[in-house]
Amino acid sequence: MENNNSAWRQQLLNLLVEYAYQEGDFTLSSGQKSSFYLNGKQVTLRAEGALLVGKLIFSMLSDDTDAIAGLTLGADPMVSAVSVVSAYENKPIPALIIRKEAKGHGTKAYIEGPTLKQGALVTVLEDVVTTGKSAMLAVERLTDAGYKVNQVISLVDRLSGGRELYQSHGLSFASIFTIDEIQAHSRK
């Protein structure tokens, strides 16, 4: 894949500001009040947004990544997009979707997707990171299943403690954007 990360980032930033970023009075999933809201699904569920997210995150993965995973629902389109891009790059990486609650029937599984070898290295994806607790639930479920999580990658870091939470658990963290970048671009 030729590296157009700068152009892809700019296109994705434009989409986030146009479709995902809103100002107002909001209550976040963490319970925190906020004067702005980012609905990443407004971009990741658009064809062009999914493609950009897939390409950018694929380029951020370590070479030894065995799978990508994320907590349903925000990460679902992201893990799918990255997995599809990986197939086009001849380095297919399976996607796993982590349920918040175990399935109430059948295998009662928390994790949907291919079964990996024990100790498989998994990168967790998240659309918007605030406190970091959503992705940590995915990390716990994956660890309980015998996988090793090395990294969390998000579309946007709200700069509200998520990075510090991940680092305190020995996980590296990267985001494509910070909220500061989104807000600065929205003011232009």
Automatic annotation (TrEMBL):
Cofactors: Mg(2+)
CDD domains: PRTases_typeI
EC number: 2.4.2.10
Superkingdom classification of source: Bacteria
Gene3D superfamilies xref list: 3.40.50.2020
Keywords for the protein's UniProt record, in alphabetical order: Glycosyltransferase, Magnesium, Pyrimidine biosynthesis, Transferase
A single GO BP: 'de novo' UMP biosynthetic process
Catalytic activity field: orotidine 5'-phosphate + diphosphate = orotate + 5-phospho-alpha-D-ribose 1-diphosphate
Keyword Transcription: no
Residue sites binding orotate per the record: T130, R158
Binding site for 5-phospho-alpha-D-ribose 1-diphosphate: R99, K100, K103, H105, E126, D127, V128, V129, T130, T131, G132, K133, S134
Pathway: Pyrimidine metabolism; UMP biosynthesis via de novo pathway; UMP from orotate: step 1/2
InterPro entries per the UniProt record, alphabetical: OPRT, Or_phspho_trans_dom, PRTase-like, PRTase_dom
SUPFAM superfamilies: PRTase-like
Gene Ontology molecular function: magnesium ion binding; orotate phosphoribosyltransferase activity
Subunit structure: Homodimer.
Main function: Catalyzes the transfer of a ribosyl phosphate group from 5-phosphoribose 1-diphosphate to orotate, leading to the formation of orotidine monophosphate (OMP).
Record family assignment: Belongs to the purine/pyrimidine phosphoribosyltransferase family. PyrE subfamily.
Name assigned to this protein: Orotate phosphoribosyltransferase
Taxon lineage: Bacteria, Bacillati, Cyanobacteriota, Cyanophyceae, Oscillatoriophycideae
The encoding gene: pyrE
